[in-house]
Structures are given as C-alpha cells and as structure tokens.
Amino acid sequence: MVSTQGSTPRGDLVPAAIVGLLGTRGPSSRVDIARSLGLSPATVTQVTKDLIARGVVEEQASVPSRGGRPAKLLGLAARGGVALGAKVTADHVAVVTVELDGSVRTSTEHPFTPNAPDAVHKLADILASQANSMDEQLLGVGVGVPGSVDSQDSGFVHAPTLGWQAAPVGPVLRNALGAPVLVDNDVNTLAAAEQVYGIGREHSSYLVVTIGRGIGCAIVLDKAIYRGATSTAGEIGHIPVSIDGPVCGCGNTGCLEAHIGAAGLLRTARERGLVSARGRLATLLRAARDGDPKAQDVYREAGELLGRTLAGIALTLDPEVVVLMGEGIDAWEHWRPGFDSALRRCIAPTRGELPVVVEPWSEDQWARGAASLVLASPFDASGNGGEQSNLVRARLGNRAVEVAR
C-alpha cells in the first residue's frame, strides 16, 4: 500500500501493519516499509528493532541502494498464519485457506441451501470443519455475500437473493468458531484483495466492477472501502438506464443489470434467435467467437451500456483507475469494442484518460477476496473491521511470536 493522505496507520496498528506488509509483499527494506505505510523512517527503525528482538522479523540479504550503504531487507522469521475465506452463493459455499502472501493453500466447495431455516448455522458447520484443523494458525474468517452488510464487524446481512433479512452471520459464526469473523458484500471483498495484493498498493481511490450473473461495484476512496449511509454504496447494477426496460430481480424495471447481467444477455440472445429457449449463455459466447456478427452485437451493445454508465460514475467519484473482473470477463474481447468507445466518448475531456485494468478470473477469487478481509486487517487505519480487525491483529502478533520461538 502506497502512502497517501489519511492512510498512515495509527500507532497501535504499526507493528501489525509491518508484519502484514512483510507477509503479503515479502522481504522489504526499511525505506520501502516507511514509504508504503506512510511512516517516518525513525518509526520504522524503532518498531522493527523491537520486532527483531522478539524474533518476529529478521534481517535478510542486502540490496543495492541509490547511495551510501546497501539496504538490508527485512522479512518474517516464520509464517504468520492463515485466513479462511468463504463466498456464499445461492447453491453452494466456496471456501479457501489463504497464506499471508495471498497463495491459496486449499480450496473446497460445499452444497448450501441459504433459504433453509437453519442456513446460517449450517454455514457455521461448514466453516468449523475447516477452522478446527487449523488450530493456532487461524488468524480469522472472512465471509463474502451477495447483499448488503451493516458492517464488517457486526456482520448482519440483508441478501434478498439468499432469502436473508438481517441474518446474524457474524454473531453466529463467531460463537461457533471462536475466531474473529469479518463479513462484507462480495464485491467489497474483491476490493479488499486489491488493497492488499493489487491495484490498491499503487492507488488510493479506485473502483472494482464485476460483470457476470450481476453487475457489482466496490468503491475505494482514500484507501478505505466506501459503504455509504446504509452500507449499500456501489449497487450500480440497479441504476435505471431505460424507461420501459426489462424487469430486474430487484423489482424495478430498466436496471443496468437487467440489461447486461447474465440473464439479460441471455434474454436478448433468445429474442434475436441466437439461442434457443433452453439454450445457455455459453452458446452465445461460442457464436461470437466463431465470428457471428449478431452474437458479437449483443456483447458490443452491453459493453456500450456499461461504458456509458461507468463514465457517469467516474465523473462523479473521480477514481484513479477502474478494475474490471468477474465471471463474465471470459467474453470481454466482445464487450470491449462497445465499452471503450462509449467510455471515451462520454467521459469529460478534462478527466483525461481513465485507466481501465481487466483482470483474469477464476472461481477462487471470490473466496480469496473474502479471506482478504482478514488479511487487510493489519492496514485497517480507517476502522472498517472494528473490533474484529483488532482481534486479527492480536492473533497475527501472537502467532508470529509463538512460531518464532
């Protein structure tokens, strides 16, 4: 994470932030640590001296500097623990265990019926089977859901697609697992992953936009995920883009998602005779890749609608960069022509070139994003995770000391 105004960790965060940085980035010089965390060199020297004395951090190889003595790299003396991440969907739960450096140690998938009366307790059972095998290695549990969450810390979920209304996900899981649990909207979890491992290292304000079954967006401003007054910021899929458009899953008509989400693309393809009544979206993509201009038009039009919408959002929020990802990225080559032209045409000339980064997608990314809620805790100067982040930081420090002994 690069230093920006307002991003410097509070004093009580500094040791955990340094341990987290070395765990997620690997060996770094004191100068790089200071620059990345927005700390003074003197503070880094003092805190790392204590961490070295405690056996948490060790000096490693030296690297050339721009002048003077070679800079010594600092690295973790031992593994700092792992995070458990779970992505909840309408029919299954994807679960991963993730190392501090972001590598996925294990990945499993479990059938799940979210509208069952005891669904949250069943989720706890699924996660307990994984968490119990980790013992003292577990730093915490992150959960991503397709809905709104009151806060990462308390974890009450409103998710109509799951049939959940004020579901006490956080309290139930914490009671069952005996570990810190952070819960958030699934797209926000991807933004958390970008903060620790991706774009967020170099930028303080950005958008993460997902295309696939739905159209989602996470907003990061000054290094913090922006949640809004009711914790629902970023629901760009429900921006009305047409007057008498198709009915959306939210109950309104003409929403962006109703036009260009997976169901919307499939409906358009069927209306134009490109896919049979029982056909699937894969048929449309195959036709587009085979050069069918009508199939390509469906994606081009979707890209144009997305580009126009994001131009308006970019003019409102002025992000440094936009990251595009999600299950629908496998068809991006066909979205791109419409998207690029619409975005550049609609955005104000004074805004300049808005960088757009398209990231490859894998199913593990949702669950890895959820784990990143835990792994971002050492850098949580804005307090997104509340007491749960404090508990993760305590475990991180204790774990590093115990293993280093």
TrEMBL record:
Protein name, UniProt field: ROK family protein
Family recorded in the similarity comment: Belongs to the ROK (NagC/XylR) family.
Pfam families attached to this UniProt entry: HTH_24, ROK
InterPro entries listed in its UniProt record: ATPase_NBD, ROK, ROK_cs, WH-like_DNA-bd_sf, WH_DNA-bd_sf
